[in-house]
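W.,

You were right to be curious about this one. When I first looked at the sequence I had no strong expectations either way, so I just let the prediction run and decided to look at it fresh. Below is the sequence, 487 residues in total, followed by the output.
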Amino acid sequence: MAPIKQAAVQLALLSALAPSAQASSHREAPFITREPKVDGTDFYMFRSYEPGRGQFVTLIANYVPLQDAYGGPNFFTMDPDALYEIHIDNNGDAREDLTFQFRFTNTFKNAAFMVGGKKVPIPLVINGGPINDVNAAGLNVRETYTVDVVRGERRSTRQPVRMAGNGATVFDKPIDNIGNKSIPDYAGYAGKHVYSVNIPGCAVPARMFVGQRKDSFVVNLGETFDLINIKAPAVEFLANAEKNARDDLDDKNVTSIELEVAASCLTSGTEPVIGGWTTASLRQGRLINPSGGSKEGGAWTQVSRLGMPLVNEVVIGLKDKDRFNHSKPAQDGQFADYVTNPTLPALVEVLFGSAGAKAPTNFPRNDLVTTFLTGVPGLNQPARVKASEMLRLNTLIAPLAKGAQKRLGVIDGDNAGFPNGRRPGDDVVDIALRVVMGKLCTLNIGCAPSDAPAGAIRFTDGAYLDDSYFSAGFPYLQTPIAGSPQQ
């Protein structure tokens, strides 16, 4: 492709993304921008690739977007009035069969100093001294959480997840990475909050971690909004190509809810495929207290939903973005037109069709239905499936070790990657762009090569990502950026 056409195609795909994308699912719908503590940003589900853990599935739900490491004094605690959930559908009926529920509590210790003969609480909200252990003396606010498992409908009987060994049901969440003076060894400190837990109904103990991590998503947004001021290549990265395009989340942290569960505890019968998604809910009623704070009450109301990445950003229309976040997979028939007749490829063609960016011509877009709503036949489609949006994983497909994974997943021959689940190193922006523009047609999945004139173009946003950006073991995501540098 000529350089002029390369630039034009890149302009097209980034122009199309610019109005809605704030990363994988950061601030993606109007209402959720008002409730950042319950804004789900990314969801991962993959066979664990840590050596010796291949029979486990790791679930990661990220929340609270765009965290600046220096963002004190309150930093980024979770919402104690919210319900955070990870759901698993293991029979293809678009309804949860297994739900993990997380609730958070903040306990204020009210550290104080004697000043002029009076004991006065300190102004520092989180830390009053060095922090190097679970619930350290220098911690002024202790954040804890409980976890329940529900089998069947999400509001039915709950059973507590317990710490292996002592049976405790309350777990400590590490404080955010305030800085190196407060927490000299943050990686070691956070590691003390990785728990071995017993899940009711599971014979094999699981691992769990909840805490701040480096934001795991990579995307080039700032240059997009600056009149598409892009310097990165328009097509696939070559061996000698620039790989340092601006990642606008490279200085941001996020809060991760992570579980590593035996695959046998998540599947049902002989069906190896599971579907997963994460949600957050708030109480229907809120009464603001004139003396400070608020009182929450009423039924739980779902306000955030995330399964497949980028769906609410670049598939769902603006008028339905809040509705999507409030909906369940079993109700996804109301959004079918956004998948079968997507507007993003049409917009790309309108803007830059003369440069070769032609939208696929197969309607309905059955290739996108398999990607987003049913799973791909022979890869991650259950034996019986109701069309619904969620991340789907075939638990029989063996994981690939760090270093052997391909960043483009299935479309590059790596069936252990996206859209068969999602690993931290899967470049879902590049994959999704190519699939929306007809990459699966070139593979005769749901359509023919003749249906996708631009299906072979190797679209990219220019921000590079692969498994080298992540660790080889649980909790996989990198240590969060510190609020102050090493002294």
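Here's what jumped out at me. The mean pLDDT is 86. And, maybe more interesting for your project: The chain has eleven helices and 16 strands.

Coffee later to discuss?

I.
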